[in-house]
Amino acid sequence: MQSAAAARLDAIFFALSDGTRRSILERLARGEAGVNELKEAFSITQPAISRHLKVLERARLIRRSRDAQRRPARIETHAVAEAAKWIEHYQQVWEASYQRLDLLLADELKKRKRT
Amino acid sequence: MQSAAAARLDAIFFALSDGTRRSILERLARGEAGVNELKEAFSITQPAISRHLKVLERARLIRRSRDAQRRPARIETHAVAEAAKWIEHYQQVWEASYQRLDLLLADELKKRKRT
DNA sequence: ACTTTATATAATGCATCGGTTATATAACTA
DNA sequence: TAGTTATATAACCGATGCATTATATAAAGT
Q1: What is the model's pLDDT at position B19?
Q2: Which tens digits make up the pLDDT trace of B17-55?
Q3: B20 — contact with chain A (CB < 8 Å)?
Q4: Residue A19 pLDDT > 70, yes or no?
Q5: Do B14 and A14 touch (CB under 8 A)?
Q6: Which of A34, B41, B75, B91 is the most exposed, having the fewest neighbouring CB atoms within 10 Å of its CB?
Q7: How much is the mean pLDDT over chain A?
């Protein structure tokens, strides 16, 4: 079984892998919105929007609240920060390895000059 | 039709949405590896590894080269930077909106104090 | 030429995606 | 209670995902 952290990253990156969902997030970053408002902005049906929101909710990229019949969605910042953290860590590991390689090559050059 | 940039982000985030693929990337961040070496590290079959590499290649998260029969994979840094950039931009937009909301609330408070 | 090694591809099975239409539910309104 | 509004859920469809096993290809070695 995967770790819980890995499963969360799965859900987050998967949610971000769809252009419509990223657009929804960008819309929500400017303020909360309900299903109907989003439906207008993206010309797909209401059920399609509801399902996208469910995916975003599963990844905890959004939270939903209640306002009479409306169930406005709003951004939850923690999840995307998790994704950012993974990327950052990954880049650091790569950077470290790249620098080691750099030294290795420099070393190799020195040896060749000597012989 | 989606923009080319959006399609690239789709591919990148999708590639990152699988734990095995992220692990492969982390392994590759420490140095190039061929299909067989990866197969040992992750207990899945060789065709499964080949397919994961294809997904990573499609997202341009890796490049492959040739070394006799081996086709070692290595990290390509540009793609993950694109993902990082989207996240950063998104966070900034959210931050801006959050600050506007802050001001709005502060304003609202002032009004209430006055009345 | 034959064998070995490394990898790719095809065929298959089962699950999930992303959209649709049709229908159900929940919350308010007259 | 009946009607309206906002959203959710179910059923379906065609496409795709991810794993498997079996087979093909590419490059070297003998």
Answers
A1: 98
A2: 999 999 999 999 999 999 999 999 999 999 999 999 999
A3: no
A4: yes
A5: yes
A6: B41
A7: 91
Would you give the DSSP letter of residue A66?
Answer: -
SS (H, E, C) chain B: CCCHHHHHHHHHHHHHCCHHHHHHHHHHHCCCECHHHHHHHCCCCHHHHHHHHHHHHHCCCEEECCECCECCEEECHHHHHHHHHHHHHHHHHHHHHHHHHHHHHHHHHHHHHHC
What are the angstrom distances between the C-alpha of B47 and each of A2, B11, B35, B39, B59?
21, 20, 9, 9, 19
Measured in angstroms, the CA of B85 and the nearest CA of chain A are apart by: 10
- Supply the pLDDT for residue A101: 66
Check A90 against B7: CB less than 8 A apart: no
Interface test with B, best of A1, A9, A12, A16 (most B CBs within 10 A): A16
Q: Which residues, other chains included, contact B11 with Cβ-Cβ below 8 Å and sequence gap of 6+?
A: A17, B58, B59, B60
B39 within 8 A of B45, measured Cβ to Cβ: yes
A70-79 pLDDT per residue, tens: 999 999 999 9
Cβ <8 Å between A13 and B16: yes
User: Over the range A67-77, which residues count as b (16 or more CB within 10 Å of their CB) and which as e?
Assistant: eeeeebbebbe
